[in-house]
Write a structure and sequence with these properties.
By secondary structure, the protein is α+β, with helices and mostly antiparallel strands. It has two domains: 189 residues, Superoxide dismutase, copper/zinc binding domain (Immunoglobulin-like), CATH 2.60.40; 143 residues, no CATH class. The chain is 14% helix and 33% strand. Strands 1, 2, 3, 4, 5, 6, 7, 8, 9 and 10 form a ten-stranded antiparallel beta sheet that branches. Strands 11, 12, 13, 14, 15, 16 and 17 form a seven-stranded antiparallel beta sheet that branches. The longest helix is centred in the middle third of the chain and has 19 residues. The chain is elongated and about 70 Å long. It starts with 6 loop residues before the first strand and ends in a 15-residue tail after the last strand.
Length: 355
């Protein structure tokens, strides 16, 4: 099949398993947008109302199935990025003529499935959650709800060629930051990492560092109009804190932090000569620590007056932990934008820089 001409299609995904719904009374739904042209391909996956599992008990993967020479073939395209509210998306690049890295063409596949994969038991079967059918006619991808780019029949050959070249260049552009994620290192139950398309990936960390840094700078300037607050009787950071009620522009890429700030309708922003600090309201319980600490929120401090509950002690009762409110805190380096562990005052050099 020829994949040089630009083609675009939408595949509607229908629910297969309500057990994985975030809200049981609502259906799970999603769609794929598939583009091919100039020998390149891209898939955009979007889903709604999928159940979010803490600590990656289950993750969701996009898998294509088909038949070739009377045998079933499959290609694991990649993992879905899902937030706590059940909304998921991702963006994948692939080669239409070699989707699985073993010579399988896009036209060999007839079904797209979003499946829940257990990360605890590699013998547990896949759980198909969403399913969409693909059909192919000539060199055009057809599917339920297919969305083909229409051309004016009177368009001249020169205009067609120019339009085609523009579309091809679009496919050649690097994907938007944060979406081209091939989660090759994760175990995929019965599918090992050999099932993923092997690609050499560029590193875009610098973009996120700059984004976090600039977002903190902007928020800090805005917060100058807010009153200073003194949330802790003993503050290990030594920062000057301000309470921010507008959680919409929380300057950190962290679903867990956004969840906590939204739940308690505010967060606190701290600052010293070298660091910005973000404090997310929450109790000293696993469910309220953003990403379990993996996103940098590793320091918890009780609010003034709650120290006596001793929530951080190993033998603290659950009743005390549910009563003692505080903040989960991370730090952002003003120079680099790195998200780093908050450093207690006693570990810093006399000039205030890290030792």
């Amino acid at each position: 099949m020829e994949y040089t001409k630009y083609n675009k299609a939408m595949v509607l995904l229908s629910e297969e398993n309500r057990d994985f719904a975030a809200k049981s009374e609502q259906p799970i739904y999603g769609n794929l947008r598939i583009e091919t042209g100039n020998g390149k391909g891209a898939i955009s996956l979007s889903t709604q109302n999928l159940r979010f599992f803490e600590r990656n008990r289950y993750i969701y993967k996009l898998i294509l199935f088909g038949e070739k020479k009377e045998r079933t073939i499959h290609a694991v395209v990649g993992s879905l990025i899902l937030n706590r509210f059940g909304t998921g998306e991702n963006y994948f690049r692939f080669e239409p003529g070699n989707v699985d890295g073993r010579g399988g063409q896009l036209s060999d596949y007839s079904v797209a499935i979003v499946a829940a994969v257990s990360m605890r038991d590699n013998k547990e079967p896949l759980h198909p959650v969403l399913k969409g059918k693909l059909a192919f006619a000539g060199s055009t991808v057809m599917a339920a709800g297919a969305e083909r780019v229409n051309r004016n029949e009177e368009e001249s050959m020169e205009e067609q060629e120019e339009s085609e070249q523009k579309r091809e260049r679009r496919l050649e552009q690097p994907p938007k930051a944060g979406k081209d994620v091939f989660d090759e290192a994760l175990e995929a139950g019965p599918y090992d990492t050999g099932d993923f398309v092997t690609k050499k990936r560029a590193n875009y960390n610098q973009f996120y560092n700059q984004y976090v840094k600039e977002a903190c700078e902007k928020t800090a300037k805005t917060a100058e109009l807010a009153d200073l607050v003194y949330p802790f009787s003993k503050d290990k950071t030594g920062a000057r804190w301000r309470r921010v009620a507008n959680v919409k522009h929380l300057p950190l890429v962290s679903p867990g932090a956004m969840w906590g700030a939204t739940k308690y309708r505010h967060y606190i922003l701290g600052e010293d000569a070298n660091m910005y600090y973000l404090g997310i309201p929450g109790r000293f319980i696993q469910e309220e620590q953003p990403e379990g600490g993996q996103s940098g929120f590793v320091l918890w401090q009780p609010i003034a007056g709650a120290e006596g509950l001793e929530a951080t002690k190993a033998d603290c009762s659950m009743e005390n932990r549910m009563t003692a409110y505080g903040y989960w805190i991370t730090a952002i380096d003003k120079d680099t934008g790195d998200i780093v562990e908050p450093i207690p005052l006693e570990t810093r050099s006399p000039k205030g820089r890290r030792g």
